Structure formats: C-alpha cells, structure tokens
Amino acid sequence: MASSTAGNCCVCGHQTSQWCSKCSEGVDKDGNAAPTFYCGRECQAADYKDHSKGPCKAANARKQLYRGALLLQDLFYAYREIAFDLDMINVEVKNGRLHVRERAFDAAHSGPLFRFPNHLVACPKDKAALLTFGACGDGPGQMYELIKKVFQGIRHPDTEAIEAQHRVKKDHWRIIRTQGNGEVDRVDYRHEAIRVSLIDSESYILDLAGAQYAREWFTGPPNLGWRANHNKEVLEGKHDDMIATNYDFRVPQIQAELTKRMNTAVQQWEKANDKTLTLMLKEKRASFEANKDALIAAVTHEMRDYVDWTKTEVGVDSLNAAMDQMGLEERSKKPKSDADWFGMSEQTKDLLRKAKANRKDISFHYF
Question: Domain count of the chain?
C-alpha cells in the first residue's frame, strides 16, 4: 500500500492515509485522481479479489486513456501548426466568436503552407480553435496508428471503435470565416469523432478537433476532453463535395508524408528508449510527463525538417512531380460535385451522398 492524503477505507469506512499502490495514479470517469483507500492489509486482502478485477483495472485503463488523449491532442496541435494551410491575415473576437479573414488565393505565390498567425491570437483557447478549424476530417487519418497504440489493452474486446459523423449546429460554431474572395464560408460541414468502450464498458468520445466549436464537449462519459476525427477511408476522399476548384493539392501530399514522418519518429523514439508508447502511458506521473515532452519534441523536429525540405528547390520539384503523376492538376478542373477525390470507394461515396440527402449522422468502423 502507498500513503497519501486521508480518505475513508473502502471496506470498513475508517479514515486512513493508505491506498492501493497498483492504481495509485488511476483516475475516475472525469479524469480526476481516484485512489482506493484501505486502513490496513486486512481490509485490503478482504477486498483484493473484487478490487483487482474491477475498480483497480478500470482506474488504470482510464489513466492510460486520459494520458494518451492528452498526448494525441498535443501531437495533433503540433502537426496542425507545422502543416497550417490557411492564409489568415486578420482575426477579431466579436461576441465570443473569432472572425477570421483570409488572403485572396494566388496559385502562383500562395502556400501550400503558411506560418500560423500567433501574433493574431491572444489566448491558448483561441489558438486551439484556429489550429483545429477546418480539420474535421483530419484527426484519425493522421493519428490512426497512434490512436490504436493508446487504446491497446484497454478497449473492450467485444466492441469496435466507431467513427461517427455528425452535423454541428451553427450556433455552436466559434469561428466565422471570410474567404479571400470576400464571401463568408457557410458550408454545412460534418464533424467526426471516435466512440470507444473501455474494458469496463464505459464509453468515451475522442475528438482532436473539437476546440473549433463553441459547444462545451468536455464533460466526461460519454464525452472525453480530446477528440479525433475521420476514418482513414474517408480521409482519402477529403470531403469530396466541399473542395473548391482552387484547392492546393500539394497540401494533402505534404500531410500524407507528415503522417509517415510522425509514425517513424514515434517508432524511433520507442526503439531508442526501449519502451513502447503504450508502456509510457502506464509509467509514474513524473516519468510519463518527461517522456511525453521528449516524444513530442522528437516528432515535431522530424516534421519540421520535412516541411523545411519542401521549401527547397528539390522539395518543390518533388511535390510538383508527385502532382503530375497523380494527375491532380487535371482533377482540380472538375466540378466541385465530382466525387472522385483520392480514390474514395464507391461504397463510401454512396453512404455520404445518402447521409447528406437525408441530413442524418453516419458511423464507420474505425478499428
């Protein structure tokens, strides 16, 4: 047993400062510390069978989930800042909302990536909103492999992770976007989130891009304070009915490569430190926090190196050659309604068309 602040023994109710050492850093459904107190070994032994198979295991599973979600969120923010593809020239806060103005699109001189406008945002909450704006379909596509690592060993074996698409009401929007042509963006976008059940059947929603909305999502089960979005298959379609004809197709090329770099950097970190990401999430708090920061730094460095390379003459030529090979320049001339983006399956196209026509939410198998 470990000693800490006082609590009541879960067996006899007497006040004590000792708790179960195996779940000493476990958390409750809202992510708060939830130690199980015992006044002595006799009470702990009496409760061992029930506690070890139930509350102890569940508390540690939640710890892994919340720590993993925090890591995923920080990595996603880092990825979005490095791969920021919006040319924002003005941001104003009006009535609790962010009014964003973009520069007019110029294919000859724009992008494909832009420096995130840190000078235009005054607080971390606003920065998170801008980083996730328009990323409703990016999260699980880029973070797919890492999300699977986070849930390793804690997902209920009889359930599958589900990616659910849903519409976000306009009164929940935090950002009002004026495009470079002067028109206000009024597209009715869909948002995606991952729904998963843990080993004790508690359900959570993981959403990395929720900061762009005004609604407070972070309320514990069935919602978790961090989210991921978009099935890998849907990501390849990249919102087929919402891409303008002036969309810069170098962006998904860079994003796809950044995903590879991110996964490679994590694998290299795991090898260098002789531990898996999943094992890191189970470590003592101080060790976890130090390793988390080191891992994020390693991944960020790898991604920045690649983006810097894309700005060199060799990098520019390589991106242009990739576009020519895929015929994307020709595809960009097709009408916006054309659904042939990046090889989206006919089944997925049909599902999305029906959902849009019926204005219904839809779900996909994630893993």
Answer: 2
- For residue 100, pLDDT over 70 is answered with yes
Is residue 44 domain-shared with residue 98, that is, in the same domain? Answer: no
**Strand, coil or helix: 113:** coil
Domain match, 127 and 261 both: yes
For residue 62, being part of any structural domain is answered with no
The reply to whether 47 and 76 lie within a common domain is: no
**CA–CA distance, 338 with 343 (Å, rounded to integer):** 12
CA dihedral sign of residues 288, 292, 295, 297: negative
Structure tokens at 82: 């490095």
How far is 76 from 209, CA to CA, in rounded Å? 9
Of the candidates 166, 140, 138, which has an alpha carbon nearest to the alpha carbon of residue 251?
Answer: 138
More confident residue, 215 or 289: 289
Q: What angle do CA 73, 345, 161 make, to 5 degrees?
A: 40
In angstroms, the CA 295 to CA 70 distance is 13
Q: Which of 190, 195, 212, 78 is nearest to 147 (CA)?
A: 195
* Cβ pair 164, 192 in contact under 8 A: yes
- What is d(CA 82, CA 123) in angstroms, rounded to the nearest whole number? 19
Q: Is residue 242 pLDDT above 50, yes or no?
A: no
Tell me what pLDDT residue 273 has. 96
Domain that holds residue 92: 67-365
Q: Is-contact 5 17, C-beta < 8 A?
A: yes
In this prediction the pTM is 0.82
C-alpha 105 chain-centroid distance: 28
H/E stretch holding 13: none
Across all residues in the chain, what is the average pLDDT? Answer: 80
Q: What integer pLDDT is reported at residue 346 of this predicted model?
A: 54
